[in-house]
Each structure stands twice: as structure tokens, then as C-alpha cells.
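Running this now, will post back.
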Amino acid sequence: MYDAFKETMRKIDTEEDKKIVETFLEGQNLTLEKDVEYTIALFQQDEIIATGSLSGRILKCIAVDPQHQGMGISSKIITELVNEAFLRGKIHLFIYTCPKNKVLFTDVGFHEIAEVPNKVCLLENKANGIKNYVSKLERYDKEVKQVGAIVMNCNPFTLGHQYLIEKAAAESDILHIFVVSEDRSSFPTKIRYQLIQEGTKHLDNVIVHQGQDYIISSATFPSYFLKENKDVVKIQTLLDLEIFKKHIAPALKINKRFIGEEPYCPVTKIYNETMGEILPSAGIEVEEVQRIQSEGEYISASKVRRLIAAGELAKIKELVPQSTYEFLMSKEAEGIIEKIKESSSRH
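Update: finished.
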């Protein structure tokens, strides 16, 4: 029998407790994901009956023992995690969960953004979060026939990115560029955004936007920055594209999405393939643009970072626009360059 007077909530900060949580989650076909920063668990007479974790602004790995469901325990876990997030200065929060559990979160003030049936649902704690973002986009809606879009990380902005944009711009009346806003790349969001603006200012029909939380973010697509299995990447891709076709494309009347050929990154390859399967049914054409090469090798941001790591900055000049190269030669870039030399991350 459930006895609220004998329950204790505690932070999980020892390896022993972590193993208890991992075993508990495994029993419910869940895992304690590697990127969690804070985990709590509710115990009753030394037996774990619920747990939940926080990763940045994402509430995740939330589970309640089946015998204790329907007793308000999930609300206690969520409240504790929300309070901790607020203490950390994280106000806009997201929950990534399976659709059958979404009522647990709507009951405590979260609001649905999008859902992939029987797979995943994304919710946020702002009633008008996605609506406010879309309303800002609608200011750029113009009565034209061909409206294109590209989502880019550009870490950093290369001649390959510039070629893709120029080709897409030539085929569009208006071209919207959405910059991945998540700060998990070697080059910070602000710098990537500036480099794209500088490298496209000769194109008068290009508008550059911040993707914010709704296009390839840790909320919509956690695995974009991680090496996850293909099934996980596929599901998260479906969610990200559901948000795009449900909210973003209609706001700007986007009818074509341009993507660059992806010979290297398996995550981006799955994303591109899924895009080709999903978006046409929503009236959005998908065009893959072949990458350009330099000295028999595809121009890529990863190659630029490898050259930076090797200290071969002179070779980069042939791979990036002048504006990117000038930034890399500036004092502002010194800290970024040092971090790349020290890092082994693929981003």
C-alpha cells in the first residue's frame, strides 16, 4: 500500500544510487541518458518508486512504478525538476515523452507543440511559446510563388554552404535560412549567425533567422549532437519535421526545402532521407543539392575544423568565404581555435 509519510525524495549523486535508477528505468524500457545533469528519485522504505532527470531545459527520463501510478507521484517529480530548473535560471522548459504519458504533463501546466503518433510528443511550459515564435516569422510572409528554406548549422560557414544558398536563392523568390541555435558547436550561435549574414549579404532575397527552440534543438532533436542509434534519430527527425510542417512552413508559405548532399554524417543523412519521405505530402518539395569539391574532396565544415585543429589555417582559405577567413584570422576567433585544437567532438 502507498504510504506518503514514508516516502523520501533525494538527489542522485552517487554511483550506487545511479545504478539503482538505471535498473529501475530499464524495467520500464527507458534509459538514464548520458546528457542528464541532475537526477532525483522518490523512495518508499528504501525502494525506488519514481525518478526524473534534467538536461539543460529538458525534463526527461521520468518514470513511476506501475503499482504507484495514478497517485500524483509524477506531479511531485515534475515539480521538483521544474523548481531545480528555475533555480538554475532555466525558465522555458520542455518535456520529451511518449504520447500515452502526455496527460501527466498537460495536467501540470505543459502544452503540446507536436506529436509523432505512438512514438513521441514534445511539450513546453509556455502556453504560447511556439505561437509567439511563429507570429514573429509571419512578419516576413510575402505574396510570392516560390518560397524556399534551408536549415543550417554552419560550424563554420564554408563555400559549400554559400554555394547551397546561392543555388537555392536563384530558384526562390524568397529564401529563408534558419540557423541552428543550440550552443553545442565549436562556433557559438552568435558567430555562426553573423558569418552566414556576412556570406549572404550579396543576395537580396535571403532572410536569415535564428532557429531558436523549434528547429533542430536539444528539445526537438536531442540526437543531432549525439551519436545515437538509427531508430532514435529517425523518431526525433520525424518530430522535428512535424514541427516544421505544422507550424513554421505555413507561417511563411514555404513550399520548398533545400538540403545539401550528405556523404559523411549519418545523423544528417537520416534527417535528409526522412525529409524526402515526409515533407512532399505536406506540399513541400525537397531538393538535394550536390556538394562542391576542392582538390577532389567535398568541402565541409568538419574538414575546416580538422585543418584548424592541425594548425593549417592557410589551407582553409580555399574552403571558406573571405568573411569567414577574416574572422578566423581575427583576435575574436583565438579562443574558438584553441578549443577546437583541444576538442575531439564531431561538432
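The chain has a mean pLDDT of 89. More later if anyone needs it.
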